[in-house]
Write a structure and sequence with these properties.
binds magnesium ion, binds guanosine-3'-monophosphate-5'-diphosphate, Rossmann fold, alpha/beta
């Protein structure tokens, strides 16, 4: 039996959510995909351990990000989340925090979550605009993993999905053990 998970990718506008998804699923960084509004989710099979696969249904909040009343149905059934901010724009770090707390207030069970600082390829150019330690401390407090990615170069993108998947699989394992104990 192949496990199948709904994963959501959320965060402020223009931080690179669609680009990350495009990089992960199609291994491309192109602008044309951006215009594909109306694509609700993409599916990809991922080998998270040798010869062990899961199917990920990854939902991109896309054009709904501005409409808060739509967020609840978007979050429904999600078992994992990627919360993205833009390393080159400091204010997206604070907005990302609001996204995380909104998600947690709506999703009943805490779901495995990974915070992504995206556009790491820009750091050599613009310098370190975000205090990495602050982000790491925040992530730890919120029980999230923190990974810096670049949808442009592909750096750490696969790793981000892999780490999230491993956490989801682990959580499933715990739930199964618990239900055996309860019965
Ligand atoms: P969103 O889906 O979060 O709104 P997009 O973000 O994926 O549409 O990306 C927003 C802009 O950031 C796009 O540029 C995109 O090319 C750029 N971008 C996304 N990821 C990266 C990255 O890792 N590095 C760099 N340098 N740029 C990135 P435009 O100019 O088309 O608005
Ligand atoms: Mg988008």
């Amino acid at each position: 039996m192949e496990l199948s998970f709904k994963v959501i990718i959320i965060g402020p506008g223009a931080v690179g959510k669609t680009s990350l998804l495009n990089r992960f699923v199609h291994n491309e960084f192109s602008l044309k995909y951006k215009l594909t509004i109306g694509v609700d989710f993409l599916t990809k099979s991922l080998e998270y351990e040798p010869e062990k696969f899961v199917k990920l249904h990854i939902w991109d909040i896309g054009g709904q990000e501005k409409f808060k009343f739509l967020h609840r149905s978007f979050y429904e059934g999600a078992f994992g989340a990627l919360i993205v901010f833009d390393l080159s724009r400091h204010q997206t770090f604070s907005s990302m925090k609001e996204w995380l707390s909104e998600m947690r207030s709506i999703v009943i069970n805490d779901i495995p979550s990974v915070i992504l600082g995206n556009k790491s390829d820009l750091i050599p150019e613009i310098g370190q605009t975000i205090d990495r330690k602050e982000v790491e401390e925040y992530a730890k407090k919120e029980d999230c993993l923190y990974i810096e990615t670049s949808a442009k170069t592909g750096d750490n993108v696969e790793k981000a999905f892999l780490e999230l998947t491993r956490r989801m699989v682990k959580k499933i394992g715990k739930l199964v053990t618990k239900s055996k104990e309860d019965s």
